[in-house]
Amino acid sequence: xxxxxxxxxxxxxxxxxxxxxxxxxxxxxxxxxxxxxxxxxxxxxxxxxxxxxxxxxxxxxxxxxxxxxxxxxxxxxxxxxxxxxxxxxxxxxxxxxxxxxxxxxxxxxxxxxxxxxxxxxxxxxxxxxxxxxxxxxxxxxxxxxxxxxxxxxxxxxxxxxxxxxxxxxxxxxxxxxxxxxxxxxxxxxxxxxxxxxxxxxxxxxxxxxxxxxxxxxxxxxxxxxxxxxxxxxxxxxxxxxxxxxxxxxxxxxxxxxxxxxxxxxxxxxxxxxxxxxxxxxxxxxxxxxxxxxxxxxxxxxxxxxxxxxxxxxxxxxxx
Length: 319
What we know:
Order of helices and strands: HHHHEEEHHEHHEHEEHHHEHH
Number of strands: 8
CATH topology of the largest domain: 2-enoyl-CoA Hydratase, Chain A, domain 1
Shape: globular
CATH architecture of the largest domain: Alpha-Beta Complex
CATH class of the largest domain: Alpha Beta
Oligomer: single chain
CATH superfamily of the largest domain: 2-enoyl-CoA Hydratase, Chain A, domain 1
Largest sheet: 8 strands, mixed
Radius of gyration: 21 Å
Number of helices: 14
Distance between the termini: 46 Å
């Protein structure tokens, strides 16, 4: 996939284009203006990293929303491929159908058996349509509930990876009990007696995200978001119009960034992303998430986390 740059990343795009042109010229033996193109490439790469740090150090809430939604950002399938060995995908809710948006399966994490759940958005048009743009239907959440219960039955730690704009709001989904399916997932996470660690890797949208994020340890990537409603939806409700002025204002008001949420004790940890965000170095981002999950599982085990302590943790948020 070719690199896609956001509006505020334009300075990075210009440097990247220059680096690409020089590398192509060197590869094809073409004459370039620079006396030493190899040194110029190194200089430009250092400049790229410096500007990327500056750009990403002071992102607004709305800019973080755009980063969280970036199509090149690693998705749960990418995390599973790098973190989980002997991965065995599981399909179907045993009631209606298979929902490919909901990744589910068993495997080994750092050599130990685990269960894993995640929500995929897809990377191209075909995948996005197959995954319903990361919006699971009731059968996806019922499949997730089945895996949660399986993890409890076989005493397997549960890892969940959240990246969804929210559950699918279509008429067919509502007819098949979307709200009940999400509520059943939340209830199950409050009942199972195995360690549960959740990471919001991109978007954490409304109840569709909460269905997988009722965990002993809840973490967010540095440029991910977690909110009860999207900035666009919030702006439409509050100002009756979603535009370039109201949407960024809504994003700020929602306090949806990882930094906001850890300050308010709604999540437990923020995982630092590589320079230029996770989509600029997916492998490094995933390795950092892997270490954070390993630490989170160890913390949950050492704290002897149970369904009771998990329930108490979330009840405190309402007091």
